[in-house]
Design goal:
Layout: H1 4-22, H2 28-43, H3 53-70, E1 78-80, E2 83-85, H4 90-97, E3 102-108, E4 114-127, E5 130-141, E6 148-151, E7 154-158, H5 159-173, H6 180-187, H7 199-230, H8 233-240, H9 245-261, H10 266-273, H11 276-285, H12 288-293, H13 296-307, H14 310-337, H15 342-359
């Protein structure tokens, strides 16, 4: 029998080490928001309950002191029944944990930040040759909170992480002047801007998250398929751009659009299943360079909202794929021709490609 407390403490140690090493990769606003939600998760505070500023202030101070102690530490092995596993040996660890109704996830996110979580195991299925695991209630996680992650031939989808993202948007929904797409998305699930945060709303948002997590699975499937097409040099490109934040985020955004617009990706799934709420949430979460790269979907959403015609969305998807494919080919060509001048590549991406998009 696995002791959940012992397992959780080992994984939490690695979460803290990751946060200690990479907290500086977030903007100040982003870091404070992530700390707030991590505090809520660790203390078991419900989304509709208030946080005491004095308490969270002390917690943040303690966490910063802990990070100073851990920033030079190495990640520790995960010990299960006297067997030790490296923290990224996810498949081996889950072979042990599935028997106990648990699921473990580990991977690299933006800025190559390691991310870990432990959760209740809900279900497993296979699609396009990939094992897909659905994770429920989470016992531990780091500052990162991805709704789904791809590792090797497996995808780990997190209902809890998806629920948190949707709760944040529900709070935004209640503000005056919230986005049309936001109201559209929630309306398809029967939630209006007039509703007050409550346990009942929390239950309904969990149901939304359980439905919406499927779209994130499709994003990861699209990414897996496009990985096979684009080749292993793309990962080498991202590694070379690691020290150049804007260029790296732009390259990741190109890949995200490529994955979403793929024939096996998120938007194709939304269109085929006519998931109006999912389309609304896709528009809501489309920000940063992705919105600059894919303006066609914004216009298509407007026309869809007026007509209900999915052809507008599919035409935008195809146009978005062609554009993302062209950008990906351009970035790889730059990388191949200038392997020894990675600073030049990053500056070209920032000064020519990104600057050109901003002028549009």
């Amino acid at each position: 029998m696995i002791k959940i407390e012992t397992l959780t403490s080992q994984i939490k140690q690695n979460c803290n080490i990751s946060d200690a090493k990479y907290w500086g990769s977030y903007s100040l606003c982003g870091l404070l928001l992530r700390l707030r939600e991590l505090y809520r998760a660790e203390k078991g505070i419900k989304p509709w309950e208030n946080i005491q500023q004095k308490d969270i202030g002390e917690w943040i101070s303690d966490r910063e002191n802990l990070w100073k102690e851990l920033e030079d530490k190495d990640f520790g092995d995960i010990i299960i029944d006297s067997n030790g596993y490296a923290p990224f040996e996810v498949e081996k660890i889950n072979t042990e944990l599935e028997k106990e109704g648990l699921i473990y996830g580990a991977g690299l996110g933006v800025n190559m930040k390691p991310s870990f979580f432990l959760a209740d195991f809900i279900s497993k299925k296979t699609e396009e040759g990939y094992d897909i695991y659905i994770a429920g209630n989470e016992y531990v996680r780091d500052l990162s909170n991805y709704p789904a992650v791809l590792q090797d031939r497996a995808i780990y989808a997190r209902v809890d992480a998806t629920k948190q993202l949707i709760w944040e948007r529900f709070e935004e929904l209640r503000l005056k002047g919230s986005k049309i797409a936001l109201a559209f998305a929630f309306s398809k699930y029967g939630i209006t801007p007039e509703e007050e945060p409550s346990e009942d709303v929390d239950r309904r948002i969990y149901q939304i998250a359980y439905s919406e997590v499927e779209t994130y699975i499709q994003h990861e499937l699209g990414e897996a398929i496009e990985d096979q097409k684009i080749g292993c040099e793309w990962k080498s490109l991202l590694v070379e751009l690691f020290s150049y934040r804007r260029a790296e985020i732009f390259a990741r955004s190109v890949k995200d659009i490529l994955s979403d617009t793929s024939e096996k990706g998120l938007l194709k799934y939304i269109i085929e299943n006519q998931k109006e709420g999912s389309l609304g949430f896709y528009i809501v979460f489309l920000g940063g360079y992705r919105s600059l790269l894919f303006p066609e979907i914004l216009e298509a959403f407007q026309r869809f909202a007026e007509t209900g015609d999915w052809e507008f969305v599919d035409n935008a998807r195809k146009a978005g794929y062609r554009k993302a494919e062209d950008y990906a080919e351009t970035l790889l060509l730059l990388y191949k021709k200038n392997r020894s001048e990675k600073e030049w590549v990053s500056k070209y991406i920032e000064n020519e490609i990104i600057a050109g998009l901003n002028k549009c």
